[in-house]
Amino acid sequence: MDWGNVTIENLVDALREVDWSSPPRPMSEFFSRFTVPGSYSKWISRLKCNLYYYRTNYFIMIVAILGLGFLRRPLSIVAAILTGLSIAFLNDSFAGTFSEKMIRYVRQFAPHLAAKMRPPLTRPVIRGRPSDKRAIYICGQPRWFFVLTFSAASFLIWYLSCGLLTVLWAFVIGHIATLLHASFRVPNLKARLNTFREEFRAVWRNYSDL
Q1: Three-state DSSP class for 162?
Q2: pLDDT of res. 162
Q3: pLDDT of 176 higher than 90
Q4: Strand 125-126 vs strand 141-142: parallel, antiparallel, or unpaired?
Q5: What is the C-alpha to C-alpha distance for residues 144 and 155, in angstroms, rounded to an integer?
Q6: Which of 16, 47, 5 is nearest to 191 (CA)?
Q7: Could you report the per-residue pLDDT of 31-76, keeping only the tens digit for each?
Q8: How large is the C-alpha radius of gyration of the chain?
Q9: Pick from 70-79, 113-122, 171-180: least confident
């Protein structure tokens, strides 16, 4: 695969579609050989190849650095979870799954309360006409209620913990470390074979869709 011709959009799409459950590369391979790229084009090609091939290693490294930042501000962990939930609620699938699991859990202790948490069956009205798109409800409340509530709570805890700057620094350091490693790590034969295999899968998927 000629990574020099791969755009950022193509790389993002590939990272979104690829399986992230694969185990990380061995540490002996991850810290094997480093050289300075000979040109700007070679640096861009090496950067894209390593970001794709070592994606799991980079993810673990960033999470580990963020974890060290959270150790200094334990309350920031709660703020980060609330922030992540407020963003995740914007996804229709996550919002529906979260609501169903919460209702199923509450039904074990309070069936009447669980019945009230069911979403209404009426469709939203747009410009005086019923819309075919069903509104998203979480535990019987509109989705925006949970998004705003969790966002406000996370902002308050970020402010009280004074940990936002610490976490931001850890986030920046993690990405700088990823950028440096991806820039100087020489792609080995395994990385090239892996990208060839992924390219064949993409071509075969496009062929099968015809």
Answers
A1: coil
A2: 73
A3: yes
A4: unpaired
A5: 16
A6: 47
A7: 888 999 888 888 888 888 888 788 888 888 988 888 887 777 778 7
A8: 23
A9: 113-122
The amino acid at residue 63 is: V
CA 122: distance to chain centroid?
A: 33
With tokens 């019923």, the residue in question is: 130
Torsion of CA 153, 159, 165, 166, to 10 degrees: -80
Q: What is the DSSP letter of 68?
A: H
What is the Cα–Cα distance from 130 to 27, expressed in whole angstroms?
Answer: 57
Q: Which two tokens stand for residue 81?
A: 């979870």
Could you identify the residue written with the tokens 């309070």?
Answer: 110
Q: What are phi and psi of 163, to 5 degrees?
A: -105, 0
> Which pLDDT does position 17 carry in this prediction?
54
Q: Compute the residue count for the chain.
A: 210
Burial 2-25, CB ≥16 within 10 A → b, else e: ebeebeeeebeebeeeeeeeeeeb
- Alpha helices of the chain — where are they, by DSSP H? 8-17, 27-30, 40-53, 55-72, 75-88, 92-107, 111-116, 143-161, 164-184, 189-208
Report the distance separating Cα 75 and Cα 163, nearest Å.
8
**pTM here?**
0.53
Closest CA to 182 of 39, 15, 53, 66: 53
- In tens, the pLDDT along 108-119 reads 888 888 788 787
